[in-house]
From TrEMBL:
One of its GO terms (molecular function) is ATP binding. This is RNA helicase. It comes from the Eukaryota. Coiled coil: none annotated.
DNA sequence: GAGCACTGC
């Protein structure tokens, strides 16, 4: 493909005119305000300012970074990285007394305040508060583009409200790093001590900001401390709902990043709707709960409808509004907002049109249970360039596009390329490096940096480093850079328009992992990555008609996942008819049925569909139902292999513990080194052997891991999860006496495998005369994945922990089993 | 002969 074939002109600017009218308008305002380097420089002079993780959705007008390092971090970097920084943006105090520390925190907060005031959301504070002032439960749907400041400011706005005076606000985030990073940021803005750092102030109450994510709960339990804001991952709030169904400990819940439509968010919205507006059997909470749903996109209507549907006095609300004089103002305001956004008319009436209830005593009564509001973002304009003709090979198109940019555009300005996976990233990396050698000496050098989740942490961190002088970075990334990591310095985005998605097919009980076109919203999100620091260009490796044909939104995760975990959570929360559970995107009935049947087979539900004792125990574990069931099986006193099984389950809960080696030579080497760890019974016992070998290494585990080509990072998570699971089993009274530990290894191995089989009943295949494997339930052909120790081996039958279709059906995590175990098992389970 | 991205007391 020739560079000329890439369109560069009018059609590109047309589409930004349509969608990006705000950006154009913002451009003129923005260059003179906020993000300028003078402000940056000013902040830099403050000795107490540290480079802190930046909220990638809601930027500060000043990056808190030293421009010297050019290190700009997204909402998501490594947790360790966050932990190594002093809390709250304040460096260790020389005055170690509590009062000295608090004084210092307060002065820091005063400095930060003027930057908060420059955030686009700042002027909307009182309007936002006014939506939630009635004495009924209320929902506010708050949309705002990247950089508006909503994740950090909205909780602080609400704190001063009467209904929140002594309460705590929960804010959920989809990622751990985001939750921790935001908590630290907001803590320093408020000038309070973080989490357990807060110890109380004698007679006076001390306010604090905390966070709660798996394996890291940093919320003060001290008597004199009020935790005012708590950032949690979605999963953690779901766990809290199991314990405290009415969330009595919170005055408000803020659900952030709803547009990502994770399973967690969808379930939370369902539970929260029931909690707010659930069947009218009397008040469930002492005080009405307030809910703020925050989303980046404009799809307000479906959210509005979702909550209005659940609201019992919906009719009353509608009548009330239509009889109020100010009717047009409230409804009209939000309509004008969404209309303006949809029809791309600039300067549609906005704030001027809004009646601010705090200015109008009657207005309070006008605010219904469900309202919506939109805040402007802060983003530089990005020009869009489409291909004229569709491409057959996006790797090749990306290659020529990258070099066209490189020849044409001056530095600075790094290139971010969105690809589908490790394979395409590595092949493009090779191609670029070949071409770069023949590059004109006068042109800047090219530094190619791959970025995907399976890449070791140190290699991932390289995208944050400043390149050598006269060098352009070309970052080749998966979707990781779309939401989780914000790469600094990017002005050019090359978008393949593709993504690899995992989709569960309940009929086959199989995940497929296939390359698909992205959605329009995802395409816009990728484009936005070019306009973080300066105006940018997004080169789409597809045509404009292709763009127009894309789905509007990415399919919500709940429609493409195994629902057994979600259904178990619902059942544990007392939802008897799961088909009635309110979901924004209800999954098809057969997907729910499949999940119910699976839970029945596992013994989590009984024949009438009620949750069993085993099911209740399973629901408390931070594991999929399959894995949770295995733990419970292993805890039976007569089997007693709990500790060994926990070691295996911990490995199954993290990414691959073995390092992927690229070259053939290294692969041989790794294979050789791992011989001591490999077990002929299969991958699960190999995992056990690896954990045990790692545990018995006391001197230098890092070196040990390197020697065996084992991922040290993965093993550290295995250790954490193992510890957590052991503690939880003790707490749940799942026993483990070690009498059996001394029995013959052979017998122990069989016991362990039979426990695993209890959770992987559907995942069994036997060897056919032609040498292939076929599943017992479903009679599907399945191949042992090349990463398995049993790859190319023939055994009587296999059990596997994962069943994934890529270019064919693969079994991953495979163990050898015997046919006669299966008969007993199936007889016992009623299949 | 091959591995999208997240998450959980």
């Amino acid at each position: 493909m020739s560079p000329e074939s890439i369109q560069n002109g009018d059609s590109a600017s047309k589409s930004i005119d349509q969608r990006g009218m705000k950006r154009k308008r913002l451009q003129s305002q923005e260059h003179g305000s906020g993000e300028s380097s003078t402000v940056n420089g000013e902040l830099r002079k403050e000795p107490s300012t540290e480079p802190s993780p930046r909220d990638d959705q809601d930027d500060y007008p000043v990056g808190n970074f030293s421009p010297d390092t050019k290190l700009r971090l997204g909402k998501s970097i490594s947790i360790r990285d966050l932990e190594n920084r002093p809390h709250g943006g304040v460096q260790a105090s020389q005055d170690t007394s509590t009062n000295g520390r608090l004084r210092q925190l307060r002065s820091q907060a005063t400095i930060l305040r003027k930057f908060r005031q420059q955030l686009p959301i700042w002027p909307s504070s009182s309007t936002i508060r006014s939506f939630l002032q009635s004495d009924r439960p209320q929902v506010l749907i708050l949309t705002g583009e990247t950089g508006s400041g909503k994740s950090t400011q909205v909780p602080q706005f609400l704190l001063s409200e009467r209904w929140c005076r002594n309460g705590c606000i929960a804010v959920t985030e989809p990622r751990r790093v985001a939750a921790i990073g935001l908590a630290k940021r907001v803590g320093s803005e408020m000038g309070v001590r973080l989490g357990k750092e807060a110890k109380g102030l004698g007679k006076r109450q001390e306010d604090s900001v905390g966070w709660s994510v798996r394996l890291d709960n940093n919320v003060s339990r001290a008597r004199g401390v009020r935790t005012r804001i708590k950032y949690l991952t979605e999963g953690m709030l779901l766990r809290e709902l199991l314990r405290d169904p009415y969330l009595e400990s919170y005055a408000a819940v803020i659900v952030d990043e709803v547009h990502e439509r994770s399973i967690g968010v969808d379930l939370l919205l369902g539970f929260l709707r029931l909690l707010l507006f659930g069947e009218g059997d009397g008040p469930k909470r002492k005080n009405p709960l307030k809910l703020v749903v925050m989303s980046a996109t404009t799809n307000v209507e479906s959210l509005k409808e979702f909550f209005s549907e659940g609201c019992p006095d919906r009719k009353a609300l509608v009548e009330q509004i239509s009889t109020e004089e100010a009717e047009g103002e409230w409804e009209g305001f939000s309509d004008a907002e969404s209309e303006a956004f949809a029809s791309k008319k600039p300067d549609a009436p906005k704030k001027a049109h809004v009646a601010h209830p705090q200015d109008n005593k009657l207005a309070k009564a006008q605010v219904g249970p469900v309202s919506s509001y939109h805040v402007e973002g802060r983003q530089y304009p990005v020009k869009i360039v489409y291909l004229n003709e569709p491409t057959q090979d996006f790797v090749e198109s990306a290659l020529s596009q990258i070099f066209e940019i490189h020849r044409k555009e001056p530095l600075p300005g790094d290139i971010l390329v969105f690809l589908t996976g490790q394979d395409t990233i590595e092949s493009l990396e090779r191609l670029i490096n070949q071409c770069a050698q023949e590059l004109d000496r006068k042109l800047p050098r090219v530094l190619t940096l791959p970025l995907f989740a399976a890449l070791p942490q140190a290699a991932q961190q390289r995208v944050f480093e400043r390149p050598p002088s006269f060098t352009r970075k070309v970052i080749l990334s998966t979707n990781l850079a779309e939401t989780s990591i914000t790469v600094p310095g990017v002005r050019y985005v090359v978008d393949s328009g593709k993504v690899k998605v995992k989709q569960y097919r309940s009929r086959l009980g199989l995940d497929s992992l296939l390359v698909k076109p992205i959605s329009r919203s995802s395409s816009i999100q990728r484009q936005g990555r070019a306009g973080r620091e300066a105006p940018g260009i997004c080169y789409r490796l597809y045509t404009e008609p292709d763009f127009l044909q894309m789905e509007n939104e990415t399919m919500p995760e709940i429609l493409r996942s195994d629902l057994s975990g979600s259904v178990l959570s619902m059942k544990a929360c007392g939802i008897s008819d799961v088909a009635e559970f309110p979901l924004l995107s209800p999954p098809p009935r057969d997907a729910l049925e499949k999940a119910l049947i699976h839970l029945l087979q596992l013994g989590a539900l009984n024949d009438s569909g009620d949750i069993t004792e085993v099911g209740k125990q399973m629901s408390k574990m931070p594991l999929s139902p399959n894995l949770a069931r295995i733990i419970i099986e292993a805890s039976q006193p007569e089997l007693d292999c709990l500790e060994d099984v926990i070691d295996i389950i911990a490995c199954l809960s993290v990414e691959n513990i073995f390092i992927n080696v690229v070259s053939d030579e290294k692969r041989e080497q790794a294979h050789e080194a791992r011989q001591n760890l490999y077990r002929r019974e299969g991958d699960h016992l190999t995992m056990l052997a690896t954990v045990q070998a790692y545990l018995s290494e006391h001197s230098n585990r890092k070196a040990w891991a390197e020697k065996y080509f084992v991922s040290h990072r993965a093993m550290q998570s295995v250790m954490d999860i193992r510890k957590q699971l052991l503690a939880q089993c003790v707490q749940m009274g799942l026993s483990s006496n070690s009498s059996f530990q001394n029995s013959e290894p052979e017998k122990r191995t069989v016991t362990i495998l039979r426990c695993l089989l209890k959770g992987f009943m559907g995942n069994i295949a036997r060897l056919m005369p032609d040498g292939s494997y076929r599943t017992i339930l479903g009679n599907q052909t399945v191949a042992i994945h090349p990463s398995s120790v049993l790859f190319s081996k023939k055994v009587e039958a296999i059990m596997f922990s994962e069943f994934v279709f890529t270019n064919k059906s693969y079994a991953r995590g495979v163990s050898s089993i015997q046919m006669d175990w299966i008969g007993e098992l199936l007889a016992g389970s009623g299949i």
